[in-house]
What we know:
Mean pLDDT: 96
Strand order of the largest sheet: 1-2-3-4-6-5
Distance between the termini: 19 Å
Strand content: 25-35%
Oligomer: single chain
Structural class: alpha+beta
Shape: globular
Radius of gyration: 13 Å
Order of helices and strands: HEEEEHEEHH
Helix content: 25-40%
Largest sheet: 6 strands, antiparallel
Number of helices: 4
Amino acid sequence: MSVASAEFHLMLKALADVERSDAKEWESYSVRGKRFGYYWPRTQTVGLKQTLSEQEALVSERPDVFEVQFTAGGFGWVVVHLDGIEADELTELVYEAWRLSAPEELVDQIPPPC
């Protein structure tokens, strides 16, 4: 069970209006100016926006895969270790992070992953 960085980037391409910003040690992802994710190549981890209840559930169920990153604006961000997650689960989490930031009319255009 592991997701390669190239596979993670393909997940992002399946979503609408994703904007990438590069910093020295990470990449960040936004939809129409609202941030929903990060990627750190050095540690092969991803940070994703989630609901507070989802953050708590993920971290308590599998602390070897998920860590609390921070909470802000009523959302809980999680760090995901790519070497501990399957592609299907990560696809769902990436979609959810995007959905929490995207405007409703955009979300209506992109169905959730099956």
